[in-house]
Design goal:
about 80 residues, 2 helices, about 0% strand, rod-shaped
């Protein structure tokens, strides 16, 4: 025969669920922070890459600027 559920059991189950939700929300917050940090790190790495690429290029600043603007325009169209 199944054990009869008491209000104490129900309260314990409710508290356990609330605690689990709190842990998950904390993990979500930590992941959101890690994601933002990684996105920033990726932007910095891309900037370093493009800076080094441009500094070692034989093209003029104007040619590099045009290429970057064209590449940026192409990326925006691809995002749609």
């Amino acid at each position: 025969m199944a054990k009869k559920l008491t209000w104490q059991d129900a309260k314990k189950k409710m508290k356990k669920g609330e605690d689990e939700l709190s842990k998950l929300l904390d993990q979500k917050e930590a992941l959101d922070i890690k994601i933002k940090k990684q996105e920033q790190s990726n932007r910095e790495a891309r900037a370093d890459y493009l800076t080094l690429l441009a500094s070692q290029s034989t093209k003029s600043d104007k040619e590099i600027e045009q290429w970057l603007l064209q590449a940026q325009s192409y990326r925006k169209e691809g995002d749609d």
